[in-house]
Design brief:
Number of helices: 9
Shape: globular
Helix content: 40-55%
Largest sheet: 6 strands, mixed
Distance between the termini: 41 Å
Number of strands: 6
Radius of gyration: 19 Å
Strand content: 5-15%
């Protein structure tokens, strides 16, 4: 909200941009005319790491959002990209809410209309085993609200993306149900959240199994859920250990 430049980019505090990243992303914007350009991240950072090479594809926003929601291509991180400020003005993150990238990306992409995605490495993601994404905490349950809101938005404004939004919401409920189940933490809040997740899994699994675009991991989760909560958590303990 305080930015005054033409472009905005985001970098998490424990990560870094590769040398030449912003210049290359800006160059791709000039070549494609896209107001959002997104690059690839790497988990290794050597002395010779630079943003060089790579192929670029220009996506229609609807097509790219669908691919991201089905978790088949790219990711929804706000980092590793550049945005024209006039595109994302008024499309801010929700204060105090986790999974802010998932809540933000589709609103920004829709306003952009088209997005350039390059497999050029531009962003170094430092994996921290103690970080938010690698452990369970109550704040992770925010993803249930975020995906519910996402589905409602698509259902009301972009119904052609409703199936993809339902699948992303189902994926979030699979993940949270499993994480809570294997965490060993028990409370009324946990029990209530697990019940809500399981009810949604049962409600959405038929649509998941009949949708040819759903990735195999979600289909396997839907099939496994048919055998009940105990069986699902028995397998989850092996997957999430």
């Amino acid at each position: 909200s305080l930015a005054r430049g033409e472009w905005i980019s985001f970098v998490d505090s424990d990560d870094k941009l590769l040398p030449g990243a912003l210049e290359k992303l800006h160059e791709i914007s000039n070549q494609t005319g896209c107001g959002i350009v997104k690059g690839r991240y790497v988990k290794e950072y050597g002395r010779n790491a630079r943003s060089e090479g790579g192929k670029t594809r220009v996506w229609n926003c609807i097509e790219l959002i669908r691919e991201i929601l089905y978790q088949r291509f790219c990711d929804c991180s706000a980092c590793g990209a550049i945005y024209r400020r006039n595109i994302i003005n008024g499309t801010s993150f929700t204060p105090g809410e986790r999974y802010e990238d998932l809540d933000f990306f589709y609103r920004a992409f829709i306003r952009a209309g088209k997005i350039a995605v390059t497999d050029l490495p531009v962003y170094y993601y430092r994996d921290n085993p103690t970080s938010f994404v690698n452990s369970f905490s109550f704040s992770r349950l925010d993803v249930l609200k975020v995906t519910e809101r996402l589905e409602r938005f698509m259902n009301e404004s972009y119904p052609q993306l409703t199936k993809a939004a339902k699948d992303r919401r189902l994926s979030a409920n699979f993940n949270m149900f499993a994480l809570m189940g294997v965490s060993g933490v028990r409370s009324e809040e946990i029990e209530s959240a697990m019940k809500g997740c399981w009810n949604l899994i049962r409600k959405y699994r038929r649509g998941c199994l009949s949708d040819p675009k759903v990735r195999l991991k979600n289909k396997l989760g839907a099939l496994l859920s048919i055998f009940g909560e105990k069986m699902f958590l028995t397998v989850a303990k092996r997957v999430y250990r």
